[in-house]
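OP here, attaching both records as promised.
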Amino acid sequence: MTIIQALILGIVQGLTELLPVSSSAHLNVIPWILGWTENAAFVEEFKGSFDVALHFGTLIAIGIFFLKDWIKLIKAGFNKVVKKEDSVDGKIFWYLVIATIPAGILALVLDKVSDMIIRDNFKLEMALIAFALIIMGIILAIIDKKSESKYKYEEITLKQSILVGISQALAAAFPGVSRSGITMTVARALKIDRESAAKFSFLLSTPIVAAAVLVDITEFALTSVAFWIGVVASFIVGLIVVKFLMDYLKKGSFKGFAIYRILLGLIIFALIFIRK
């Protein structure tokens, strides 16, 4: 892994992990387009732990951006159990915990299923990514346009939390679906407003991504300059992007992201055909 490759992938991760456009799709497609996948050493390193390391960068970005929220959530969650104090933050904290458990279990199962289907068939993987980008783009556009914004972050129910939580397991198993994309889509289908859907999606992703990082942390190339450049790049860009998205969704819609997904999917299909 060269420094330039690490920098590009870090920027790509920071740009796409937090937007509903699928970072896994971009992290698979960009190296393919640039010809890096023809290098066995690159593929081995990237598929080994570097992709998880890039998620570590955006995890820190989310953690810092929502640090005050997490402090309030954890404190309120503790008080709800120990002191029997009811609060919105205490309720949301335990909703996040409850929603994460089935999502984590389902993600492990679906990940095995995905590996069995794709195996080492790279073109099949690219085709599935393109298909997922297009289909989820169409679904996101339709649902976002037709769903009313009835519920705010503070009004999210346990049922809504579990449904949104379970949905992210599909993204963990199948590249191209997008964790933030599917959770925000399901949240909108459940009539949660856009800004609240994004915030809950980011909070919900934190424990799942943190668990993945902890599992692979012993394999991180901590002494590699390229490793740290990738992580720092994903962190800085991710912090900028999450701030942009939260501000944008106060008035904007998901339509632009949906169109981008569809166009990218069509481009990937075209490249698959051209590169026969």
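Record two, same layout:
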Amino acid sequence: MMTTEPPGIRVADVSRWLTANVAGANGPFAFQAVAGGRSNLTYIVSGADSTRFVLRRPPLGHLLPSAHDMAREYRIISGLHGSAVPVATPLGFCDDESVSDRPFYVMEFVDGLVLRTPSEGKALTQAARRHCGESLVDTLIALHRLDLGAVGLADLGKHDGYMGRQLKRWHRQFTDSKTREIPLLDDVQQRLVATTPDQQAVAIVHGDYRLDNVIVDTRGDVRAVLDWEICTLGDPLADLALLTIYWPDPADANPPLGEAASQAIGFLSSRDLRDRYAKNSSLDLGQFDYYIAFAYWKLACILEGVYARYVHGAITGDGYDHTVLQMQVPMLAEAAHRVLEEQGI
């Protein structure tokens, strides 16, 4: 059992809350921070009988207004639980900040694989890798087809004007958190605002849908979709575009976001993902390059916020080299600009 307190957890107070509020939680508890996340903090909680849970709380340090809303994230997975979209079972929400400084929630531990690197992708057979890509797209389609009223999320956000709101939100967050001037991000934002396509549908938009934000089994089936922090209602093509830019093909030598599991031989290509979605959706992907540029731009804004927290000392000891973001954010801005230039947008 861990004897020191991990950052963000008051072990004694949280342990008492778990025992009182989560069925099957029996202390003493061990708390292990999960590496890989660079926003909300995630911990695996192990009880005295080896039963495991997952706890999520906001990052340490200063938080921007409206960011890292634990109650909202818990509401989303509660609504999706039992739907066609697999999520971890929600087990309890704590809004009493005297327990551990910030609100947090607890969900079931879902066993399976989180695939981030090409070597991790090779944990699946080649047949399972192909099926994994298919399952990932099919799960996204299922999310976008959900009846908003049936899952109790029809009021999660406004139904129209999604891209305009996103462009305003992420540009404001970039402006509020930036540590340096990146003029290209401002230029791309202005061009995206001026050429926004009409929204074809309203759907639940995950906002950060990618392979390493799901848990899969050894067959490649998606067992749970994770990290609903920036989920809202809006334009489903934004989700597909983000998935695409996070999915480098094996032949991609220097992908802007670094290597990924999808580079292992056997996974679908990024074009295959797009084509599978298009085949099984009624949406027109004729202006999809706009969404690709938006995805690069949005991610640059988000990662600049992560880099700012690192610069100000709010992120330490997670094993990630955050200085990579110093170069990565401008590279993403350049990628967004290049797409716009190539498509004459």
